[in-house]
Design goal:
This protein is an all-alpha fold. It contains four helices and no strands. The chain has one domain. Helix content is about 75%, strand content about 0%. Pfam families: Complex1_LYR_2 (PF13233).
Length: about 110
Amino acid sequence: MKEQQLRVYRHLLREVNRQFNNASNNRAWATQLRLEWIAASCDSPTTADKNMRAATNVLSYLTNNRKHKELLATFNPKMCESDRIEKTARRVGLEAPKSYSNPDMPS
């Protein structure tokens, strides 16, 4: 059980570092994960099992989310920013506002 917990913890740290810490060099996510893991390890065995399942679910979500972003970047690289914003707004049921450009003003 301890080996599995250690393996999940290492994978979680790796995913957090890949997705959140490398881009911004902000260690807050890894620090928070470490504090939560230490606090959860002091619990009873029944809650430890529940926490282990939750950690595994979070790990699956983070890994699949990263892979999804990589696939989107690979297979949909030519989408311009305005198209991406419009599609994102439509996905959540909104309509992007029309941009206003004044032809009298120089750019």
